[in-house]
Every structure is written in C-alpha cells, then in structure tokens.
Design goal:
The structure is a homodimer. The first copy, chain A, is an alpha/beta fold. Chain A has a six-stranded mixed β-sheet. The longest helix of chain A has 12 residues. In chain A, about 25% of the residues lie in helices and about 25% in strands. Chain A contains seven helices and 14 strands. The radius of gyration of chain A is 18 Å and the shape is globular. Chain A has one domain: Metallo-beta-lactamase, Chain A, CATH 3.60.15.10. At the A-B interface, strand 1, helix 1, helix 4 and helix 5 of A face strand 1, helix 1, helix 4 and helix 5 of B.
Amino acid sequence: MLFRQLFDKESSTYTYLIADLQTHEAAIVDPVVENVDRDLKLIHELGLSLLFCLETHIHADHITGTGEIRNRTGCKGLVPENAHTNCASGFVKHGQMLKVGSVTIEAIETHGHTDSHMAYLVKGGSTDHCVLTGDALLIRGCGRTDFQGGSAETLYDHVTQRLFTLPDSTLVYPAHDYRGQTVSTIGEEKRWNPRFVETDAATPSQIRDSGSHRLRQRADFVQIMNNLNLPDPKKIMEAVPANEHCGKKSAA
Amino acid sequence: MLFRQLFDKESSTYTYLIADLQTHEAAIVDPVVENVDRDLKLIHELGLSLLFCLETHIHADHITGTGEIRNRTGCKGLVPENAHTNCASGFVKHGQMLKVGSVTIEAIETHGHTDSHMAYLVKGGSTDHCVLTGDALLIRGCGRTDFQGGSAETLYDHVTQRLFTLPDSTLVYPAHDYRGQTVSTIGEEKRWNPRFVETDAATPSQIRDSGSHRLRQRADFVQIMNNLNLPDPKKIMEAVPANEHCGKKSAA
C-alpha cells in the first residue's frame, strides 16, 4: 500500500492519497481545489490510476478539489450518505467497504461535526491500520459542532463508540491540524484528548503503566463544545455552497 | 519504533521524533525553538525519555530548539562534525551509528547546502528505512548552495553518491517542504527530482516500466544552482548566529 499525507497550508487541511502499488489503483480523500495540480502531478508521477475522490464531509473552510479532479480524470466523486449535495457520483453508507486494489477503505459514520460525516478505516498490508477521522476526531481535539447540523451529543457518541473502540495502535490521520501535528493513535487520543478525557498530569512511568483513561461524561463534553465561542470559518459563505456543488463556485 | 513528523508552519520546517517503544528512549531531529513546548508535551504524553537532540546542520531560516530542550531535559545536543559551533554536547561523524534503544540512526555526510551537513538513516523494526535528508535532498528539490560555505558541486556528489545509492524504497523525510508534501522515496526522487534528473513527460505505464532515470550532468546541476537568484532567508541574520550558539539569541 502507498499512503501519502498532503497538506494545504492556508486552511491547514490534510489530503490523503491511498494506492495499491500492485494494481496501481488509487483514491484521494478530501482534496483541496487549490492543490489539484500538485495532487494530479503526484498521481501521474507515481503511475497511478485514480478510481475515486472521497469526502469525509461537506467542508466549510476550503473548497473541495473533487469536482475539478473528476472533470480532469473521469474518476468518481463519493460523499457520505445524506450529504447536502446532488452532484456526487455516489453516496457512501456506514459500514460500506470500498476497494482500491487489495486495500480496503471502510466507512464509519461519525456525525456531529456536521450531520453527514464519515471516517474511513484504511486496511492495507501488514502495517497498522489507519483511520482518516475527518473533522470528527482531531489530534488532541475535535471538530466544532455549531453549524451544518452539528451536534455535540452525536459527536461524543460516535467518537467514543465507533473510533475509541478501534485498536489502540490504529493510526489517526485527521482532516486538519493547526499545530504542526501529523498523526496520532487511538490509544493516544483515548489517553490525552482533552475534549474527551480528563488529562491530569502523570509521570512517564504512570503513563506507560496506565492502559486506562478517564472518559468525560457526555454532558461535560457537550458543555465544552457549547462554550467554544469560535468565529465562523473565513470561507464558510463561499465554501459550503461550493462544496454542495462538488467544488463549483456557482451552482451549475 | 515510533516515528513522528512535526511541522513548523512559519518556516515550513519538519522536526522528527524517533523512539524505541520498548525502552522508551527517544531522539528529536531539527527542533524549532517556537515549538519546544509542543514537542516536550508530546514526549511527556508518550512516556518517552529524550536522549539527544540532533541537528542536520546549522539552520539559516529558524532558530533551533536544541538549546532550550537541552536546558529543560538534560539531553545531549549533537551536531555534524565541523559545524560552526562550540557549545554542542558532541559532534557526529560520517558513518557514526547512534542508538535509540534498538533503533539505529546512521549519519551520512551530505555537505553542499552548508559546509557541514548530515543526513540520518533511521533503521527500526521491519518497516522500510527512513532517511532524514535535511536540506541536502528535498522532495522534488534540494537546498540552496549559495551561503554558509555551500557548494553545488559537493551537493551533487553527495546526493547522487550517498543518497541516490540507498534502496529505492527508502522513505525520504526532508527538513522542509513548501508545497505540502510530507514524504517521498529515493526511487521517486531518482525519477522525478528536476534538480538532479531529466523529468520529461511519460505515460503511467512507461513510468511504471522504467526503473531507470536520466541523471543530469554535474555541470548542468551546478548551472541550475548558480542561477536560482533566491533572496536571503528572512531570519538569516538572526538564525545563523543564534544556531552557532545552540539556539541562544545572543552569545553566552
């Protein structure tokens, strides 16, 4: 399996390229329109054939590259079931297994940041599995829940019941990071994510000896989320309508 | 082995954390002073014990975090042999093997960006080896050669003779990237790095079938490097003197 993390500096968005190096089939997750040339050049240089673009959700902070990539490659553009768009090539259901050669991408419904959101569990070869967590679970954080049908209650339930139940060694690759972190693990987030768990100080040996974590109560999480008082993303008025039309700036 | 790539958005610098998860020993490569809190927090959360900070070279575009980390942890600060500093805990020689538990870090002298520069080949477990290439080899590029005793001739010789001779599957982790790329491979750079090779267009199947690459002549490379006409790094007047004093802004 080939697995590449790509970064958009302006919006701090991560895009992921996944491929089977035997069949040369590939998928790209959460591409950003400004980086389409970069991403297609890489796909060309690696000799890959792109099967589909996959969205974790309808983004509010950048315009998706899916429409442009679909136009230029003929690949499919897939979005989570119930996403607010009518131009996708297809919708992905909870539990659905997408295939990229021998690599499997399993969709895990993880609503709450928006009312339609999937994480994608990537299984390829003998290495640890990777989960692309979109904006549901970030490194030591999580996506906001105050627009696009977000719900703190749902986010808590889906993250704790569907992501924190994955093996601790599962690598966590989020859709964004604003502090220069690139990857984490489920075990780390269960122990150190301050939105979901109590993270009081501990010595290194206590940390190593402790497999346990103290999950916050659902009501505590909801209170944290309801008191973030964040400004709207700079591009929300432009990005959401564009992304509902697969990245086109005005409706087709 | 634990391997973490960390990013400094302002200077587009990558810092690397390497650890043996059995012994909990760790090393950090090319830390940035503004991120020391972030990096030490991560080391604490992972339950690691930091043995040393390692520099690929004396940087001109950011101030190293090594002095600050050494002060706060008591670890060693190691720099390449002949680096222009007299405050390092030790100097690393070409071919030297550093140990972080069962992980081996082999120093590879790769001068030319500056007159003292090491790449570090990281070997841990059964996964592909990683080479931290500093500013010698960047993804589809290389470091400039017009200050700090740089030499395009030397850079060409060391990259082509000491990095391009590593196995094609070796993962390339540079000290910087300005286009959101996080990792490459030696095979990819031998085929697609426009500074070192001719990269004419090819079809995907030609790319896959072609194991060969057309290395530029040394004189062509030197001509490219001598005609870049880059402005000085914004922080060079502050960063180089500070880094010659292990990150202190004025000489101790």
